[in-house]
Write a sequence for this structure.
């Protein structure tokens, strides 16, 4: 082992370059074999009186100053034992630790590996003991089975990971597309709002100017009237202060002129201008409608990617009457003269759309008419859905659908579940997201979510429709 070798290098003697034997430490702290250091000290120098020096650092030390290093000696012993174990390797693993004999047997009861001596021991006499290879055989088979199961589960997890990563990428692309739509639509709305703001501000500016003009006319008219009445008041005041003879002179004409003077009562704001001011809020109503329309359009475009679908008459049950354009179906108790084929439903009164889908995101509108009762089923089905005999409407059979009946709506899961909705849908938007595995139903009028199925599609799927009850019908919105 590399770590044991590196430790062995650390406990070598600087003089003999071997592993330290009876290590001793001199005054400077360096360690040597006792025998090596003793021989070093016995070598005579040029000056017998000169002190001894450490072979490594040349620091002086006393002849009797070195002392045994017992801790280092223990470390050296442990390193040598580890080195021996690593050298012997696997040879010792096949040898019984207690008896030193080679291991040949395995005790099933104690799950212990035995040598010949262990095999004959009293505690194993009544146990099931086999040779190692014989005992390992069944365990190898069990391990092999476990490996196969684990590998299958690992592959399944890897498939799920791949599928979910693909779904994530599809969703990211959808989000990016929606982001571009939002940016585009809001830029268009921003331009429209700026234009409308300019129009409304210009109209307010005109109203402001007209009010000021009428104020000036009003002020001029009032000033003129005040001036005229001031003249009459002054004349009457002057008349009143005269003596009787002067007061009576021409008094009747003065009174007639004063009494017959009609006061003009001008209006500061004309009725027409006042009406324009009162009607101004009405100018904002088209703007409000435009913003409402914008929000509806934005929600619609973010969620609606129309798929041009039509009904496939080759799949239609004989009790369904299809329109000539194959976009409307009505239930009838009278059987149609429809040739039988492998694609046609013969028990379930259902019909599929043309084409089908193996990828992408698609949406279609279904307008339901249940005025006379009955029910309508909408959703998607797998290509291999059962066409003959009884059809069980649930995901296990390859059907993801909801049923609309008079007064309630049900999601057709493994067990049908009645849904609590604010209103009965009459127009349903169905959205299929193939890669993500979503089938979503929404009330197309109120935008209220109805239900969403989550699954993983592995084959082609088709829009699916079913009817039951006299007069029930549906049509596909263009």
């Amino acid at each position: 082992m590399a770590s044991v070798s590196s430790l062995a290098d650390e406990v070598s003697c600087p003089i003999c370059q071997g592993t330290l034997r009876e290590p001793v430490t001199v005054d400077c702290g360096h360690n040597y074999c006792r025998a090596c250091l003793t021989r070093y000290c016995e070598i005579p120098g040029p000056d017998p009186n000169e002190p001894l020096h450490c072979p490594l650092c040349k620091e002086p030390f006393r002849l009797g100053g070195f002392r045994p290093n017992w801790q280092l000696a223990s470390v050296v012993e442990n390193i040598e034992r580890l080195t021996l174990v690593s050298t012997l390797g696997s040879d010792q693993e096949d040898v019984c630790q207690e008896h030193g004999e080679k291991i040949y047997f395995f005790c099933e009861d104690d799950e212990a590996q035995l040598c010949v001596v262990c095999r004959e021991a009293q505690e194993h006499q009544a146990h099931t003991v086999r040779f190692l290879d014989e005992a390992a055989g069944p365990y190898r088979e069990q391990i092999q089975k476990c490996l196969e199961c684990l590998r299958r589960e690992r592959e399944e997890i890897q498939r799920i990971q791949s599928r979910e990563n693909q779904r994530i990428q599809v969703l990211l692309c959808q989000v990016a597309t929606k982001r571009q739509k939002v940016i585009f639509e809001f830029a268009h709305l921003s331009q429209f709002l700026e234009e409308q703001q300019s129009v409304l501000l210009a109209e307010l500016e005109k109203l402001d100017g007209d009010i000021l003009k009428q104020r000036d006319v009003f002020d001029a008219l009032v000033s003129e009237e005040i001036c005229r009445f001031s003249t009459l008041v002054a004349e009457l005041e002057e008349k009143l202060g005269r003596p009787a003879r002067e007061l009576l002179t021409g008094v009747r004409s003065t009174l007639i002129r004063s009494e017959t003077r009609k006061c003009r009562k001008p209006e500061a704001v004309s009725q027409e201008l006042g009406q324009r001011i009162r009607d101004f809020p009405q100018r904002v109503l088209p703007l409000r409608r435009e913003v409402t329309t914008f929000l509806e359009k934005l929600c619609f475009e973010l969620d609606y990617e129309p798929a041009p679908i039509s009904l496939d008459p080759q799949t239609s049950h004989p009790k369904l009457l299809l329109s000539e354009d194959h976009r409307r179906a009505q239930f009838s108790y009278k059987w149609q003269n429809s040739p039988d084929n492998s694609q046609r439903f013969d028990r379930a009164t259902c019909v599929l759309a043309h084409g089908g889908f193996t990828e992408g995101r698609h949406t279609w509108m279904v307008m339901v008419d249940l005025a006379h009762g009955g029910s309508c089923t909408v959703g998607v089905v797998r290509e291999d859905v059962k066409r003959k005999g009884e059809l069980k409407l649930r995901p296990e059979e390859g059907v993801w659908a909801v049923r609309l009946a008079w007064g309630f709506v049900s999601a057709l899961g493994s067990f049908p579940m009645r849904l609590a909705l604010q209103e009965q849908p009459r127009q349903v938007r169905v959205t299929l997201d193939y890669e993500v595995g979503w089938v979503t139903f929404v009330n197309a009028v109120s935008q209220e979510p109805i239900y969403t199925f989550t699954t993983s599609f592995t084959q082609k799927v088709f829009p699916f429709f079913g009817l039951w009850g006299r007069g029930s019908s549906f049509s596909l919105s263009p």
User: Anything to note?
Assistant: The first strand starts at residue 23 and ends at 25.
